[in-house]
Design brief:
The structure is a single chain. By secondary structure, this protein is α/β, with parallel strands linked by helices. The protein is built from 16 helices and 7 strands. The chain has helices at about 10-20, 25-50, 105-115, 120-130, 140-155, 210-225, 240-250, 260-265, 270-285, 290-305, 310-315, 320, 330-335, 340-355, 360-375, 385-395; strands at about 65-75, 80-85, 165-180, 180-195, 200-205, 230-235, 255. Strands 5-4-3-6-7 form a 5-stranded mixed β-sheet, sandwiched between helices. Strands 1-2 form a two-stranded antiparallel sheet. Strand 6 (about 230-235), helix 7 and strand 7 (about 255) form a beta-alpha-beta unit. Helix 1 packs antiparallel against helix 2 (about 25-50), helix 3 (about 105-115) packs across helix 5 (about 140-155) and helix 5 crosses helix 15. The protein is elongated.
């Protein structure tokens, strides 16, 4: 006697339904119904496993099936309506269709990610269609990216920590349309080193240009958001920058970027002297301590002051802020004597925004920079190297201003 072959209900349903197909439209409907059937079967199986008893069996903990709820989900074959089974205790959390999770949420993440990388709305629309087989309009893309403005506002006004061990401040210049003309605008950025030894971007501010007075308003904003003290600030040698910092955070030690100063000095030197000039200058900023730096500078000045007085004068005018780093141990010196930390951030932001040669307005540029920062900060998960050692150095150096 032949053994009766077990019938697969899914296969049987497919055979019945596909046998009735007459055109493409009906085929699409059949696929949608099969998809629904398959997902709902998976959900029922998940609930059986969760409850640990079959339907109509007695429950050991009094938890039973409790009907279902409707949920609309975006899929690669379009919108589908699913019946999601429930349990009486509301402890069932399906894997096949997670709670509060819709494919549209994933698509929004993709849209925002593509926008952050400089793609325009038309390109994003095409990309989503290629990846998911779903058509979304340019208006939808614009609406999704518009939501970023709300996230950005929350981020820009979030409370900050009371103390930052170090901050790095700099600006990037972008081209923005304004009143029918294209003009340069400065996006001021601040990175803070917090008590966990991690970097975070504290905010971004847009202005027509970078100025000491505008930086003072930036620092005032940081103070309004909860910052009470900054131990060390590393900046470029913008005129009046140090005075602006002192006006808001009078105890902060300021360090001008040595690399910026070297570049500025070399502008006054002819190319035939540059190699020798730079080698002599290196003896100054690579000295072991402030006394050795002063001696090296006197020697440097005696040799080059007659030929390049403006190069020497720029060092003399900014000497205290250029050599502030000598007060600290080697590990802290390496962190603060240049603004490389924030210049690296600026360079990466430019990579994400390079496809936008001109932004249509301030909102667009802030949105793009914010999204770029979001991507960059995801990689800042680790403490800076040797943080345990550096933390102790900060605690000893600034024992009157900070303690654990």
């Amino acid at each position: 006697m032949k053994e009766k072959k077990e019938v697969n209900p899914m296969q049987q349903l497919a055979e019945q339904m596909f046998g009735k197909i007459k055109d493409k439209s009906e085929a699409k409907n059949v696929l949608s119904e099969l998809y629904n059937y398959g997902i709902e079967a998976m959900l029922k199986a998940e609930l059986d496993e969760h409850l640990e008893h079959d339907k109509h069996e007695e429950s050991p903990d009094g938890n039973y099936r409790n009907g279902s709820s409707k949920k609309n989900v975006k899929s690669s074959i379009g919108d589908i309506a699913l019946n999601i089974p429930r349990d009486r205790h509301s402890t069932f959390s399906p894997i096949a269709v997670p709670k509060h999770d819709r494919m549209i949420d994933k698509i929004e993440d993709v849209v925002i990610g593509l926008y952050a990388r400089g793609m325009n709305t038309r390109d994003i629309e095409d990309q989503i269609k290629d990846i998911y087989g779903i058509t979304i309009s340019e208006t939808t893309v614009s609406n999704i990216t518009a939501r970023v403005l709300e996230y950005m506002k929350q981020w820009q006004t979030r409370p900050l920590e009371k103390i930052y061990f170090a901050v790095w401040m700099d600006a990037i210049v972008v081209k923005v349309k304004e009143n029918g003309k294209v003009s340069n605008k400065a996006i001021s950025l601040v990175i803070g080193l917090n008590k966990e030894g991690k970097k975070e971007v504290l905010g971004m501010w847009i202005n027509h240009n970078e100025s000491a007075s505008f930086w003072m308003s930036v620092l005032t904003d940081l103070k309004a958001r909860g910052v009470e003290d900054i131990l060390i600030a590393s900046t470029d040698n913008l005129k009046g920058f140090t005075d602006a910092i002192k006006a808001v955070f009078p105890k902060t030690d300021t360090q001008l970027c040595v690399v910026h100063q070297i570049r500025n000095s070399s502008r006054y030197v002819v190319w035939t002297d540059k190699k020798e000039f730079m080698a002599d200058l290196k003896e100054v900023y690579n000295a072991v301590n402030i006394d050795a730096a002063c001696q090296a500078f006197e020697k440097f000045k005696a040799k080059w002051s007659k030929k390049y007085p403006h190069a020497i004068l720029s060092w003399e005018r900014n000497w205290s802020e250029l050599t502030a780093f000598f007060k600290y141990p080697i590990e802290i010196r390496k962190m603060i004597y240049t603004t490389n930390t924030i210049e690296s951030l600026n360079s990466t932001i430019r990579k994400y925004t390079k496809t936008k040669t001109v932004f249509p307005d301030d909102s667009a540029v802030l949105k793009a920079v914010y999204l770029a920062i979001n991507i960059i900060e995801r990689k800042w998960t680790n403490q800076i190297r040797n943080w345990g050692l550096i933390l102790n150095q900060f605690l000893i150096t600034f024992e009157d201003r900070y303690s654990l």
